[in-house]
Design brief:
Length: 57
């Protein structure tokens, strides 16, 4: 059975298409991560006491 046109196209290597530079892809990924990451929770507040350490004798 002879090969059809569609089977020949599927085995051919894809042609190079003008695309997005890797630099732009990485920048977009970093921007998406920055926007989708929630802010850090605030650190718990400490009491107003100041802890002073004494020097060892």
């Amino acid at each position: 059975m002879p090969a059809t046109q569609s089977s020949r196209e599927s085995t051919a290597q894809p042609q190079s298409l003008p695309g997005v530079p890797m630099r732009d892809l990485l920048a977009a990924c970093a921007a998406a991560a920055a926007v989708s990451t929630p802010p850090r929770a605030p650190e718990p507040r400490r009491s107003g006491r100041v802890c002073e350490h004494r020097e060892a004798a």
